[in-house]
Amino acid sequence: MSIASKPIDPAALKSAILDKLVYSVGKDLDRATRHDWFFATTLAVRDRIVDHWMQTHREQAGDGHKHVYYLSLEFLIGRLLADALNNMQLMEPVGIALSELGVDPDEVLKVEPDAALGNGGLGRLAACFMDSMATLGVAGMGYGIRYEHGLFKQGFDSGWQVERPEDWLAFGNPWEFERPEAVYPIRFFGTVKESEIEGRKIYLWEGGERVLAVAWDTPIVGWQGQTINTLRLWSGQSGNLIDLDAFNRGDYVKAVEEQVNAQSISRVLYPNDSTEAGQLLRLKQEYFFTSASLQDILRRHLARFETFDNLGQQVAIQLNDTHPAIAVPELMRLLIDDYEIAWDKAFAITSSVINYTNHTLMPEALERWPVSLMERLLPRHMQIIYELNAQVLNELRSKPETRDPDLAEVSIIGEGRDRMVRMGNLAFLGSRRVNGVSALHGDLMKETVFKQLHAFYPQKITAITNGVTPRRWLLSCNPGLAALITSAIGDRWITDLEALDELTPLAKDASFKEHFARIKRSNKEVLAALIAKRNGIGVDPDALFDVQIKRIHEYKRQLLNILEAIALYLAIKQRPDADWQPRVKIFGGKAAPSYVRAKLVIKLINDVARVVNGDPDIDGKLRIAFLPNYNVSLAERIIPAGELSEQISTAGLEASGTGNMKFALNGALTIGTLDGANVEIKDHVGDDNIFIFGLTAEQVLERRSHGHNPQSTIETTPILREALDAIGQGRFSVDNPSLFRPLLEDLRTTDWFLVTDDFKSYFDTQRRVDKVYADQSIWTEKAIINTAKMGFFSSDRSIREYADVIWQAPLAH
User: Fold this and answer.
1) Active site residues
2) Residues 351 and 438 in one domain
3) pLDDT tens digits for 164-174?
4) What is the C-alpha separation between 201 and 486, in angstroms, rounded?
5) What CATH number did the domain enclosing 664 receive?
6) For position 567, what pLDDT does the model report?
7) In angstroms, what CA-CA distances link 176 with 172, 351, 430, 628?
8) How many domains does the chain have?
9) What pTM value is reported for the model?
């Protein structure tokens, strides 16, 4: 029986919440804070989950369930209480119970901090997949790191990004369960001793540094609670108590040094890797959670079957990007060194269970680690990597079609001036399947980053387009629209998003259009109030809400967006009496602490916003707002209000994107290049319901290979030249006119991301957007079509394809 099929009694929930408030939180009703009510409510709801969680464990322990393990350095799960209440269909009865206790349910939901376990699309994809795996009944488990502080809390100081500690665990986390019985030793550094027993080589990895990985489990509730899977996160701890002798000598730093080193591994997501110490810590993190996860997977499998002979039939491991690529030599090491399995069999097992999802087409973004660092930190793994590499290269050289004796593009070791371990190649060679995350991405992988590997292993690369969970990204974040859809076509769409296609005829229905537009207007009013509160500026809900929210990176081209805003601003200044379509440009996203150029783009956006928003001549025709500390909860406020979705990456560089799907699902129109999943969105919504501009991926490759002249492009594009001149003359940085010179010099010389080449097409397409938006009836019709055609982009469909094509795992629902 699912959780949702049980009778729901608000009176019983009210009693349960009060009991938790008194006996678990230790407060009485009169003294309870919002935080106390959040904890009490969560604990009461959690109790309803646990029984079914245990039942899921019992059911999945059977021989008929193939277990899928999803390894990801990020899980951007956001707030869990509202998500659980929606999936369990408890939102209304819990709301009634809290209201009868004199508590505002909305305020309770807002208390929960976002779990700071990720940065962007990579982590949010992992969270959507966990939701869909549970909803579909995949026997799945996620593995990651329990970051104490996550990435960072973003603030702005004079327009500059400021990184502050993210303290999401400061008041505890009522969702998690510590598992002291699930603790695994993780070794770093040390030496490897080789010996021989009965003709078999034995490798002993000894000495060095040893830490413990301790498991913390969080239940992941599928729709109606039919399956409740587990997210297991690892926390670093020292295996020893403090050095009491050092403490008594007064050397307090030395006394706790080992504990600090161990705990630092799970302290912060993505340490600054521009330094050697940062690189070392990041590689430690990747190996730490990968090794702990693999040890746990093998232990769990042996508890079921007592043999590894059937590991490939009973287990599938998915590597989310190259961060856990060390899983290939680590699984080999565990099988060979700990379980005494021969090399060939160990590799056969490894390559039958591991699968790798690639998320980038940029060679420089595929992780590479210095050989010297790997040899020092993980000496046994380098031995395995060398042997594996030699074996692969020798096998390929023996093939008659091999013409390159060096096989430089295939080798796991990059033999440049600084020898590097190529983690992408390692993951590719050690995996059963290598997945691209959109149709275009799958094709481009074969032609670019993995061209030579694909030539030798043509059966490995697959392409399964990403998706988003409709439970969070429509049902939960946009309840008004969700209710309208359900009233029109029923609620089947919640687990079968293809049902949204039934909305297509309603795009021309006057009553439905009116209701749809009214809901969008209401969502815009909510976002306008948030902008006023956080940014101190007023925006008109009747203006076009034009949104770009994503990680700040040069290839995502926030720079192109703000240059268009500058050009529009200058045009309005020159012709203030023209009939301009009012527009609010909304930005959100974080730049990596060491990414100087991306942080300079943030500064430019904020400086332009300060000038534009303070210019009385503009009179509300253009507003710019960069909302700080972008996270899942903020996205849940922005996306339902968005009307124009900026997906403007340089074609061929965005693997897929999921923000484009979330916006379109909530009735926004996309402006974008033919990149990533934009291509498939265009195919589904139709050419008339999307705004495509710029160079194609093929044209980008041709332009780069044959050279291009950005300065010439600038000189022949007056609106672009004027915008760049305004920046260079210090119009937006009066106190430091040369502040943005690095951005300008790059645009005029290299312009690797082809901002100048695409600018005119982008600017003209934005003016076409203005004309379409002026007719609100037509715009609403197009918005409804976007929502109606998003059925394909459900993460449920993605997981069904993964289960069929990659994991070969059954679905329970």
Assistant:
1) 359, 550-551, 556, 658, 662
2) yes
3) 999 999 999 99
4) 65
5) 3.40.50.2000
6) 98
7) 9, 33, 33, 28
8) 2
9) 0.96
